[in-house]
Structure formats: C-alpha cells, structure tokens
Amino acid sequence: MSHVLEIKDLNVVFGGLHAMKDLNFHVDEGEIVSVIGPNGAGKTTFFNTITGLVKPTSGDVLYEGHSILGLDPNQVTALGIARTFQNVRLFANMTVVENVMVAQHCRTKQGALSALLNTKAFKQEEREIREYGEKVLGFFGSRLVGYRFDQPAFVLSYANRRRLEIARAMATKPKLLLLDEPVAGMNPKESAELTALIGRLRSEWGFTIVMIEHDMSVVRDVSDRVVVLDHGETIAQGDFDEVSNDPGVIEAYLGRPLENAEDKT
Amino acid sequence: MTVAVRSKSAYKKSNVDFFLSFIKVLLVLMVSVGLLAFIAQQIDPNNPFAEWRNEGATRLGWPALKGLLIAGTIQGFMYGLIALGYSMVYGVLGFINFAHGEVFMVGGMSGWIVSEKLFETGLWEDAFLLALILVILVSIGVSTLTAVIIERVAYRPLRGSPRLIPLITSIGVSFFLQYTVSLLLGPASKSFPVLPEWLTKDRTPLDISGTQIMVLVVAIVSMAGLWYYVENTKTGKAMRAVAEDKEIAALMGIDVDKTIVRTFAIGGAMAGVAGIMWGLLFKSLIFTSGFLPGIKAFTAAVVGGVGNLGGAMAGGLSLGVAESTAPLVLLEPLGIPGVSQLKDAVAFVLLISVLLFKPTGLFGERLSDDERA
Amino acid sequence: MSELMNDSSSLPAPPPWSFDPRRLGRLGGLAGLTMAFICLIGMPVKIDTVPLIERVLSRGYTSLVWVPVVFGFIVASQVVLEGMQARKRGLGDIIDGTVVGGIGGFLVGLLAWLINNYDIRDPLINWSPALYDFLSFSKGTGFAFFIWTALGLGLGAVGAGLQVLPTAYRRIATWPAIAIVSVSVLEAAFSDLLENLKLEFVADAIYAKQRGVTVKGAIILAVLAAIVAFGRDRVKTVVASANANGTVLPGAALLNNVAASTRKKISTTLGVVAIFVVPLFLGRIMHELLANVGLFILLALGLNVVVGLAGILDLGYVAFFAVGGYTTAVLTSPFAPWWTPELPWFVSLIFVMIVAALVGLIIGAPVIRMRGDYLAIVTLGFGEIIRLLFLSDWLSPYFGGAQGITNIPGVEIGVTTIKGTDPRAVFYLVMVFCIVAIYASWRLENSRLGRAWMAIREDESVAEAMGINTVNAKLAAFVTGAVLASFSGAIFAAKAGSIFPGSFKILVSVILLVVVIVGGMGRIAGVMVGAAVLIGVLGGPSQPGLLQEFGEYKLLVYGVLLVLMMLKRPEGLLPNVRRSRELHGDELTQDVWIKAQIEMDEEDNSATTEGEVAPA
Asked: Which end of chain B is more exposed for a tag (fewer CB within 10 A), N or C?
C-alpha cells in the first residue's frame, strides 16, 4: 500500500538559496502530521512544491504512488490535494458561500452551454453545489452560517477568515489537506476550538492532514507525528515528546549554549 | 512570494499547449523557409527553390540591401531611445506607459515649432549646428516636462493600484495628448525645414546620408550619457534600487517619489531626442506620429527584456533591422505580394514570437518580485 | 465602542478656515489655464454661432463659464476622512471661490491682451483675431480684462456657494442649469421627438427659430427642474422621517409590499418597452443614430464579458467585429471576390459564430497566459494585424483589400429585408441581439463559470490552487466575447451594405473600452447607459453623435473622461458594487477593521457552542 503522499530526495534551489535539501517525507492515510521548524526553514516552500507552484530542482513528489511532478496547481487539486495559505488569501469580494462554491469547481462539470440553456442538470448541480457549500460551512458551528452565507468575505473577522480559508480547502473534496499555520494570529480560545475541529476533520471527514504550525499546544494535541525542518532538511521525526526533547531540535530553535555555560535550560 | 515556475509533465499536456507548440513550429518553419528561399534567390534567382513560392524572383542587390540595413539600424536606434522610457517606467512602477509614444511626438512637435521659427529668421541655414542644438534642447525640455507632468497628475495618485488601472489611465493620457496637439497646432502634418545640403548628401563608402549619421551620433551620445548616469550616479543607483524593491529602498533613505520623477524625466528626455531626430529624418510629423512607434518601441523593450536598459537598445536595433529587411528578405521569398504594407505587422509578430519563445526577453527581465507576478 | 462612533462631539474638531494664498493661486492659475486651453483648441469660437439661450448666452461662452464655477466648487470642497467631522462651509469659502474665479478670469483677460499684441498664430492655429473678438466682446482689451475678471469673481463665488448650501438646495440650484443646457444642446433629438408626438407647440415654446432655447423656454425649464429637485428632496425627507418615527405613510404600505425583485422586474420591463416604443416616435436622423448606438451597445456588452467579468483587458476587440463583418460579407454578398455562396443572413450567422469562435481561440491561446498588461498590448497588436491583413493586397483576392466588399444584402426576415435604408428596423434587430447578449452575460455570471471568472479576477493563483483551470476559463470568456462581437459585425455589414478595412481601426477598441469603463465594468445596465450616452451624445469613432459640431473634440473628451474615471472612480458611473469594493480597498479596510473589532467583541461575549446562532 503506497503512502498518500511521498516526497523523495527533494531539492529546491532558488538562485543562491538551497531551500530544500534531499528532503524525504511521507504521510499515510488518516494520519495527521505536523511540520514544524524555525522561520525560514522552508516549510511553505515545501507546500508550494507539493501543490505545483514551485518546480523542484530534483527529486520526486508522489501522490498515491504516482508522480505529480510538473502538474499545474489546478491538476494537483483535482487529484485530491488541497491547501490553505499562510496569509489568508480569500476571494474577499465574493460572498462566504461563493468562496466555498467556487472551490468545488473541479468536482463539478456543468459548463457554459448548460448555463446558457439553464438545463435541468445545470439547476440541479447549482443546488447541490450550494448545499454542499453550506454543509462545509456548517462544520464550523454557527460562525459561518445563516446570514453569513451572503456576506462578502471581507467583512469577516480574522478568525472567521481563517476558518473560511479551511472551509474552502475542504470544499474541493480533497483526500489530503495541507494546512499552512491554521491558527496563526488566533487567541488561545479560538486555537483550542480549531484544534478540536482539526481532529474532527480526520475523524468525521476522513481527510489526511499535513499541518505547518508554530503553536506547540496545537501540535501536541492533534498530531500523530511531528517532522522538524530546518534549512530545508529534516532534523528530527517522531511523536511530539521525542521531538521536543531532541537536542538538535532545541538547538535549531534556541541555539547552542556557550561552551562554558552552566547547564541552564 | 511564490515563484511561479512550472513545466508541463509528460502525460498531461493540455490542448492549448499543443496548439501553442503548433504555432511555434509554424513560425520557425515560415522563417526558415523564407530565409532559405532568400539565400537561394541571392545565389541564383532562377533556382527552383527560390522560384517555388516567388515566381520571377530577382536578386536583391547589395546596395539595396545595404540601404535597408542602414535605414533599419537608424530606425532601430530611435526605437531603442523610445524603448528606454518604456523599460525604465516598467522596471520602476510596473506598468506600460501607453502615453510615452505621445511624449515622443510632443518633443518632436516642439522641435518643429522652434525649427520653423529659426528657419524664418534665417538662422537655420546660417548657423545650422547651433540651431540644431537649440532644437534638440527644446525637444528634450518639452518632452521631459510633459512626462513629469503626466506622472504627477495621472500616475502618482494611482501608485499601488492594480497594474491595469494605470495602463488604462495612460491610454486616456495618450488620447488627450494626441488630440490636444491636433487641436492646438492643427491636424495637418507638419513639414520640417529642409536640412542644409552639406548634411544630407550621401557619404561613401557606406552610402549613408549625412542625416543618418547625425541621427546616429545624437543617439549614441544620448545613450552613452544615460548609461553613465544610470551606472555611476547616485540617482542612477537609486533608480535601480527603487526598481528592485520600492519599500526597502524607501527604508534605506531613498526618496522614492523623486527617483520616480527622475525616471520619467530621463525616459521623456530620451523620447524627446528620438522625436526630433524622427522629424528631421522623415521630414514631417503629425499628431498620430507617436502611436505606432510607441507600440513598436514597447515591443522592442519586451524583446530585449523589460527593465533591462541594454536590452531595450538591443531590442530596438533588432526591431528596426527586422522591420526594415523582413519584407524583402523574408516575406517576398515566401511569395507574399505587397509586402511593404505588412511592415507594421512585423513588430507585432516579433512581439508575439518573443513572448511565445522567451517571455523574459533576449537579455532577461529586471523586475521586482511583485511586478513579476 | 459603538457609542464612540456615533458621538460626533467627541470626534476631533476640523481645523477652521484659513486664508491660503498659495492654494488659491494654484487653483486660480489652473482655472485660467483650463480656460485658455479651451480657447486655444478653438472650441468657443467654433461653437459660438449657436446660441444656448437665444440672445442671452451662446454655446461658445457656455464652454468657458463653467470653469470658474467648477473651480470655485473644488476650492471649497474638503476631503472628509473617516472619523472626522466636516468643516461647516461659510463666508471664508465663498471668498476663496471668488478669488480663484477672479484669478482665472483675469488670466483670460491676459490671454486676450496677448492675442492682441503678439501673433503666434503660426503654431497655434486658434490664436486668431476671431478669438480676440470673442474674448473681448469686440469691445477692446480693457473690457476683456474687466468682464472676465468680473465673471470669474461672480461665478467662482457661485461655485463655492454651492458648497455652502445644504445638499438639498444644491440640487435645486444645479438642476435648472443642467436642464437648460441639456435641452438646448440636444435640440435635434427633443424637437424630433416632440414633433412625432404631435407636441410641436411645446417645441415652439421652448426652442427659438435660430436654434437654442428661448428666454421664456429657459425660465420654464429652470422652474420645472427646480420643482422636480425640490419635490424629490421633500419626498425623501418625508419618507426618512417617517421611517425614523415609525409612522406609516399612505403609499408606503403599498410600496413596501412590493418586494425589491418585483420592483426591479417592473422597471426592467418598462425599460424594454420604452426602448421598443420610443423609436416609433423619432425621425429619420434619430433612427440612424439609434442604429449606430445599438451596434456599439452590443459590442460593449460583449467586451463587458471579457473585461468586466473575466478581467481580461482586450485592446484588440475590434478584430472580432471585423471578422464578423467580413465573414458575413463573404458569405452573403454576390460581389465577394473569391467565393460567393450567397447565403441568407441568418444562415451565414451560424458560420459567423463558428469562425469568430475559432479566431477567438487562435488569438486567445497564445495570449491567455500572459500578464495582464502584455496581454493588452498583444491583443492590440492582433487587432492591427487583422486589419492589415484585410487591407493587404496579399489577401485582397479573398477580402477585397482596400476596396472592400460591396453589395452585401440585408437581413431577410420573412417577407421583409432589413437594410441600412431602414435604420429603425436595424435598431430593433440590434436590440433583439442585445437582449440575447444580456441574457447570455447574466446566465454566465451566475454560473459555475461565472464564479470561476470572479475568482480569477480576485486572485488568479489562488483560483488555480482551488482547482480552476484558469487557462480554459479565460479562454471561454475570450471566445464568448468574440462571438458577441461578431454578431455586431454581421449586423453592421448588412446595414452598411459594404465593408471596408477602415472601419476597424484600433480607435474603435479604445472607445469601446472607455464606454465599458465609464459605464461600469461588469454591470450590464451601466454599460448600456454608458454606450448610449457617450456614443449617442458625443459620437463614435466615425459616427457623429447628437453634438455634431462638437465632433472634433470628442476624442479629446474621451481621453479626459478615461483619465478622470480612473483617478476618481475606477469602477465606473453605475458600478457593479463588487468592483467598487475591489478598487476602494484601502478606504474600506479601515471600516472593516473597526467592524471586525466590534464583531470579535460580540463573539467573545456570546455563547459559542454549536447549534446556537450568534446575534447579528
């Protein structure tokens, strides 16, 4: 049985910057894997390479056993990999529900002709798209439903925008969900709420999740496995406790103590 | 930000890509066949390959070809001068200043006004060199002023808008300038006073006319001046910094507004030189004179690599020579009648080809990251 | 926090009025320059022969006197920032306006003096004795200085005064002026309409024999306009206060019961009816104008799909117009040089659509991946290439070259044939196609494809990340636009009876762009109104509008309009509300942030368990 996602010996070089160095990574179905590491470690580049925004210098990206290297981002999404963005990039002038409706584009097929003729199939599909969109939004409780459906996305509060960002990725009906710092900027209460929701994304909706995150409480609460990146390389892997005590990881985050300093952590 | 570099994977080529590959192949084929037929025609006009598409093919004599090459080069220099303005503004502000062609025209027109006056007072013939310098200075002055005013009034308020907004505005400015000149000075075409005899006669051994030499000299001097300015002075360095990243340049203490004004000013000055040279070379100007050269100069900037000043000059020269020689060297051997009518199309086909084969231009773009997006 | 927002007394007080000579000097100078410019482009002298109000005011002077009024208005205006109070306008502002107008007027006097004493007619062709006589009222330089400075002072004060007046009264002051100018200038249309409605007496009352509005007519119009403005204002105040007090007015109940969507349907139906009924009451010249305007509206609707819905700036749109026209010509005309199938128009239309779609694909495929501005230039290039090809000797065996193709038969419908000789019928035909175009735009906008277009406009790379094949979606928009343009081309060919490459210059694309932008990108009603107003009044690229004498200046005006629209309101006059938000993003961000803060506070305070709906 192949991994849902497998990265083999990935190298990404931008001019003088070696962003990813011989990276190896895999995720199995139903796992929640967190990718952590100090800033500049190459985590978002990692996502960009998977989704096809960035072309690697060498190495391979395999989705369900098949190479997806060189595919356009929309093809990658159609295959079943969805992502959110670190700086929320919603379609701000579209309504909340339109954001999750347009995300279903690659799962629907009625084209211009059926739109023009207003066929029964077209109307049916529009209904289904809207219903599914509302269902996805309902996952977040009362926050994005009801009167919110037809509000333009830019009126949402910051936390709601992050939720909508996730809802939009969900609406593409993926198998693998790549979340880029889902709780960034949220207060502790919101983070805790979202952490629980991430767990339910796996248990109720069946997604496999790879998450970039800085908030360690979220990472600890929800991950099966943690991978630590620094300067484009994996420096540690395992469950949260192993990784948080790994000296290499501590050094990457905090630096090495001076030679003659007392052992003071 | 994300670097959008993608390639097509082997098994998922889309229909559009197939079609584009087909077009590329077609273009390459046409150019090769045309050139080969031309070569065949030059070797022996009765050669069956030469006659295949073009019956009655005749050899293009060297003097004629030389004439075309020289004319093309001269025109290429002028395109290059105009292209500098497009390239610089695109590099610094990230949009196409559609009105730049009109800045060129306005410079030329103001040069015309002064040259007429000088001609009336007789100074034109008596002290031609002095008159010429005066006329050039006026052209430069007026076009620089125009460019700076346009920036202040129409573009500065739009700093930071999505790229298409200033482009559309510049189209409006272009129209405004064209019709202002037409209404103020009259829509008829303006003839320049005759150049003195000693200048216009042909110079052997190159068979190049004195006028053409004059244009060449003026163009080279201007470009050298620009090169020196951009590479060595503080302002030049500031321009490059602002082109690279506006925000960081501001943080480094560079006055971004002033630098942008200077960019427009220099581009305008170059266009002014080109304008007066154009008028003197072709002996007339009309209010629509800026439109086509403007677009073609932008093509030249793209061909050379936008934001790249050396590229702009190189692009201009390439375009000038291509435009001048393509009708007889490429199109006629392919059997297309009335080739001189299609001269203007050469620029556009060149633009499309460059964007298909090497979108960053022959010498590479020099843009900031957000402009590249 | 919301209390803070509403309590204006706690907002910072605006700075009081102060005399700022530099600002006044600048604006006054600008006013003077503007008037000098208008004089030197020859407008006043040229249109002076036609009176605006008979014996009182000629059009020539009208073209100048608006300037001090506008500049007076501007000098007294204020940019009110969010969270600040507006300063109450008063005497100081009127002084400002007076000074600005006075400076401007003085400069006009100066111009007259200069014309009298120096002759630079050589480059500036309008620097003429005629202009001098006009400016000095043939009474000498001294008088020129006096009259223009006086006019400037007075009109500048009027302009500033408009700012001082409460908004309600402002309309009562300006609408009469607008009414008089419109009715006078659009005399051809109005008198034509009145004549056909058998209401000549109205025309006789208002219009003078030598063109222009009579004094009596001007007074009547002014009074009527003032009454309408006043009435409108009163109705609004009454309704507003009733809403505030909770009282129900007699008619309000009826209005409220009618839902917004029904009201919209009624007004749309009325509009459609008007479009089809009004031309029955118009004369021949108006029919010709309507037919031309209609063709442009159809083109604008097509361009609206490309530019407004998908955000693709196609500057070579005229190419598809040309393709539609030439395909029709070749397929229907017996004089087509190469192939003469002589098909009936409606049959040829099918092939026209196919050919247009193919050309759209051929042009679209290379350009669709390019950056927006490169795409604009390249499409411009394609437009030119296509025109050059149709003009060339090379393809003249097929398309007639510079001689074009003539003898294109009209459109056969049943027993009649619609041809250029009956422009009203052409207009109706065009309107039918416009309805088709509107329907198509509307359906596409509210479909899966329309949403994809919106997403692409918002953020193209994110749209791609959401699974949208942006290349195909944009190509679809391009092709749709191409087909719609070809409809217009086909009708144009049948109407004109012959087709020449000269009709397809870049100018057409640019004017269309102005129309789509001024009308409001993305909003159908806006685009139609924009086309009707601009093409109808100012005129198209080669067609005169209602303001025939103005024809030389129309392209200048288009240029100015485009720049003004982009600077002030990029979203157009009747904006698509969505677009407006896109383009005024910064201004709205502050509002949004404040609202979001409020929202977050509310959410923290409310129950957040699932199933409970948070308060609005």
From this structure: N
What is the Cβ-side half-sphere exposure of residue C591, based on CA atoms within 13 angstroms?
Answer: 10
Is the peptide bond preceding residue B205 cis, with omega within 30 degrees of 0? yes
Q: How does strand C51-53 pair with strand B284-285?
A: unpaired
User: Domain A1-80+174-255 in CATH: superfamily?
Assistant: P-loop containing nucleotide triphosphate hydrolases (3.40.50.300)
Strands A176-180 and A208-212: parallel
pLDDT at C574: 43
Please provide residue A14's backbone torsions phi and psi, each rounded to the nearest 5 degrees.
-105, 105
Q: Is C568 exposed, middle or buried (0-12, 13-18, 19+ CB in 10 A)?
A: exposed
CA dist., res. C509 & res. C315, Å (int): 6
CB of C555 less than 8 A from some CB of B: yes
C127 at B interface, C-beta within 8 A: no
* Disruptive mutation site among B25, B287, B295, B355 for chain C (greatest number of C CBs within 10 Å): B355
The A58-63 sheet, strands edge to edge = A17-27, A5-14, A58-63, A66-67
Per the DSSP assignment, residues forming a β-bridge with A17 are A14
CA closest to C457 among chain B residues: B162
Rounded mean pLDDT, C497-517: 90
Q: Exposed, middle or buried, B125 (CB in 10 Å: 0-12/13-18/19+)? A: middle
Model pLDDT for residues C27-60, shown as the tens digit of each residue: 999 999 999 999 999 889 888 888 888 888 888 8
Contact present, C135 and C108 (Cβ < 8 Å): yes
Q: Do B176 and C385 touch (CB under 8 A)?
A: no
Residue C122: Cβ within 10 Å count: 12
Residues B285, B105 contacting (CB under 8 angstroms)? yes
The beta-carbon neighbor of B12 closest among A53, A73, A75 is A75
The candidate with the shortest Cα–Cα distance to B118, out of B138, B147, B143, is B138
Q: Which chains touch A (3 or more CB pairs under 8 A)?
A: B, C
Half-sphere exposure of C59 (CA within 13 A, CB side): 23
- Phi and psi for B224 in degrees, rounded to 5? -60, -45
Q: How far apart are alpha carbons A159 and A165 in whole angstroms?
A: 10
Give residue-wise pLDDT tens across range A41-75: 788 889 999 998 888 999 999 999 899 998 999 99
- Helix ranges (DSSP H) in chain B: 15-43, 48-53, 62-93, 100-120, 123-126, 128-150, 164-185, 197-200, 210-232, 234-244, 246-251, 256-282, 291-304, 309-326, 343-357, 369-372
B3 touches chain A (CB under 8 A): yes
What does the alpha-carbon distance between residue C230 and residue C170 come to, in Å, rounded to a whole number? 10
CA-to-CA distance for B65 and C358, rounded, in angstroms?
A: 39
Top-confidence range, A15-29, C88-102, C346-360: C346-360
Whole-number CA gyration radius for chain C: 28
C458 contacts in chain A (CB < 8 Å): 91-94
Note the helical H segments in C446-570: 448-458, 460-465, 470-496, 506-519, 524-533, 554-568
Contact indicator for C301, C325 with CB cutoff of 8 Å: no
Give the SS3 label for residue C58.
strand
Q: How far is CA C153 from CA C26, C100, C113, in A?
A: 16, 8, 19
Residue B2: list chain A partners with CB under 8 A: 48, 53-54
Quick check: C565 and B188 in contact, CB under 8 A? no
Could you say which DSSP state residue B287 is in? T
Ordered by where they begin, the domains of chain B are 75-323 (1.10.3470)
Domain ranges of chain A: 1-80+174-255, 92-172
